[in-house]
Amino acid sequence: MTSILILNGPNLNLLGTRQPEVYGSTTLNDIEHMCIATAKELGCALAFHQENSEGALVDLIHAARGTHDGIILNAGAYTHTSIALMDAISSVELPVIELHLSNTLAREEYRHTSYISKVALGIICGFGAAGYGHALRAMAQHLETSE
Ligand code: CA2
């Protein structure tokens, strides 16, 4: 069975509790449940994690090799700074979809740079919590056609 890993970076555990005008009122727990339902519909296995530290995210990306077929990554603010995450993605040779709740290109200039985009299969941003479902469908379709 195709297995997809969804990784969430720093501060995303606060979703739905603060700044709802920017990130919406859906909690990360709500998003996880929505993703479980979508994965079931798609016939895929799913793992869903959130970590605040960069090293923990690097470790989860390394561990994905041989366990998962693709990664959906909302790296949060590390998106704009982390060469370590970019290198980890390159090293595992798995397809990665970069995901953001907000449209980062319509926000502050410092959010316009992404180290993840340089090694990602594609990017989904600006659709809020619904973007997780879009990313799962895009990854499942990609994995089906690249078998
Ligand atoms: O839009 C996204 O998904 C982001 O990855 C979210 C990051 C931000 O640094 C990126 O530029 C874009 C921030 C996540 C912080 O989430 C919070 C949620 C509620 C309250 C405070 C922060």
Strand order of the largest sheet: 2-1-3-4-5
Q: What proportion strand?
A: 15-25%
Number of domains: 1
Small ligands present: ligand CA2
Q: What is the succession of H and E elements?
A: EHHEHEHEEH
Question: What's a concise summary of this model?
Answer:
This protein is an alpha/beta fold.
List the helices and strands and how they pair.
Elements: E1 3-8, H1 20-23, H2 28-42, E2 45-50, H3 54-64, E3 70-74, H4 83-92, E4 96-100, E5 122-125, H5 130-145
The protein binds ligand CA2.
Ligand CA2 binds next to loops.
Task: Give an overview in words.
- With 147 residues, the protein is an alpha/beta fold.
- The protein has one domain (3-145): Dehydroquinase, class II (Rossmann fold), CATH 3.40.50.
- 38% of the residues lie in helices and 18% in strands.
- It has 5 helices and 5 strands.
- It has a 5-stranded parallel β-sheet with strand order 2-1-3-4-5, sandwiched between helices.
- Helix 2 (28-42) runs parallel beside helix 5 and helix 3 packs parallel to helix 4.
- The protein is globular, with a radius of gyration of 14 Å.
- The relative contact order is 0.21.
- The structure holds ligand CA2.
Which key features would you list for this structure?
Rossmann fold; 38% helix; 147 residues; binds ligand CA2; five-stranded parallel beta sheet; 5 helices
